[in-house]
Each structure stands twice: as structure tokens, then as C-alpha cells.
Specification:
Radius of gyration: 14 Å
Number of helices: 7
Strand order of the largest sheet: 2-1-3-4-5
């Protein structure tokens, strides 16, 4: 999770939305990503999507775990389900409940660590840039 938090902090420093993600397989981080919607002017470049793109074609996602600092939205949850990622570990879901139920309904194990560090980073961002946050979650 610490690597995902580092990605989130890098995204924030770049002027983006502070959400980070890493993909782990066989105990090794095979990809990292962060929300780059602002930086790349790409409406679907959420952290989890960026991470999966950076992983490239890995064949099977069996046994892989996706870490994200925030509960994935339906866009990202759809990719998680589509690729058969069986386990998702999130930093928090206080600031955004996301698509936890959807993932669980599709046999994805979701673990919410409920980390203060992640919740505080998102809360501060949402307070400072509510319009950008609403755009990110499709509420604009």
C-alpha cells in the first residue's frame, strides 16, 4: 500500500488527483499507476486504469492483487472484474464508497484498510478542489 500512496502523492504534486495504485503478482510489484486525468487530459485515466496499462499484457491476472489508495469506481471495478483480478486492497472508502458491492458480487475479495493517511489526503483534496473531484467521479 505504501507504493500506492507514493503514487498518489506524485499525482498530487503534478497537479492531479491524489489516487495511486499498484499491481502485485507473486509478491512483486509489476506495475504502478496514478490518476492522470488532469496531467494527460484523458477522462478515463484513473489510477487503476493507468496501473493496468503500465502492466501491459501479462497474460493471466490469477493470483494478482491490486492496491488502490481509494475504493475503485465502477469504471475501474469493471476492469478489475473483466481481467479476473481476485483481490483488491484499498486505503480507504470513507471519502468515496466506490463499487465495492459490484466487485464482491463478481467474486473479488475487497479489503478496506481504512487508513487515516489516505482519507486525509483525499479529504483535503476534495475540500480544496471540489469541482475537479466531481468531474473525476462523474458528478459535474
Amino acid at each position: 500500500m505504501q507504493a500506492a500512496i507514493e503514487e498518489a502523492r506524485m499525482g498530487l504534486a503534478e497537479g492531479g488527483i491524489p489516487i495511486g495504485s499498484v499491481l502485485v503478482k507473486d509478491g512483486t510489484i509489476i506495475a504502478r499507476g496514478r490518476n492522470r486525468r488532469v496531467q494527460q487530459n484523458d477522462p478515463i485515466l484513473h489510477a487503476e486504469i493507468d496501473c493496468l496499462r503500465n502492466a501491459g499484457r501479462i497474460g493471466s491476472y490469477a493470483g494478482a492483487t491490486l492496491y488502490s489508495t481509494l475504493m475503485p469506481c465502477f469504471l475501474c471495478a469493471g476492469a478489475i472484474v473483466q481481467f479476473g483480478i481476485e483481490r483488491v486492497v484499498v486505503g480507504e472508502a470513507r471519502t468515496f464508497p466506490g463499487a465495492q458491492g459490484f466487485m464482491e458480487d463478481h467474486w473479488v475479495t475487497v479489503i478496506d484498510l481504512d487508513l487515516d493517511e489516505c482519507a486525509e489526503m483525499m479529504s483535503q483534496f476534495i475540500s480544496a478542489k471540489p469541482a475537479l473531484w466531481n468531474e473525476d467521479i462523474g458528478k459535474s
